[in-house]
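User: Just a sanity check before I run the rest of the batch. Below are the structure tokens for the first item. I only need the designed sequence back.
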């Protein structure tokens, strides 16, 4: 990322990651993800939990990350891109294999997983995964 900025952080403290910034996204894809994909990474697990703020009011960073990464993957590799990601609001079912996020280790939590999986289809998810290991 710093290569795009003459080899140094923008303000001496690093680059804030804002996926609504087109220049930052281009650097992220070209400098970070593409070399890893060239080495054999087939898809990404987007586990964004860093808040809902972006410089574009109302734009959730997870939603735009999902959008950008699926489009980029589709363009680079032909066909349809694939990511594993959390629910990011209405319309997010069109991009990822969804997953539940971390679960609590309990029998009650385990008993709830079938219902949770079935209701994921209510919002259009065709594929759903669980982090059943928990915390």
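Assistant: Here's the designed sequence for the first item:
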């Amino acid at each position: 990322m710093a290569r795009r900025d003459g080899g140094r952080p923008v303000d001496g403290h690093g680059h804030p990651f804002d996926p609504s910034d087109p220049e930052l996204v281009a650097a992220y894809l070209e400098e970070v993800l593409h070399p890893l994909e060239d080495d054999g990474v087939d898809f990404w697990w987007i586990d964004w939990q860093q808040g809902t703020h972006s410089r574009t009011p109302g734009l959730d960073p997870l939603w735009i990350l999902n959008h950008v990464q699926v489009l980029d993957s589709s363009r680079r590799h032909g066909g349809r891109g694939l990511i594993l990601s959390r629910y990011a609001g209405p319309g997010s079912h069109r991009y990822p294999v969804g997953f539940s996020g971390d679960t609590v280790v309990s029998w009650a939590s385990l008993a709830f997983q079938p219902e949770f999986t079935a209701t994921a289809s209510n919002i259009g998810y065709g594929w759903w995964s669980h982090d059943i290991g928990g915390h």
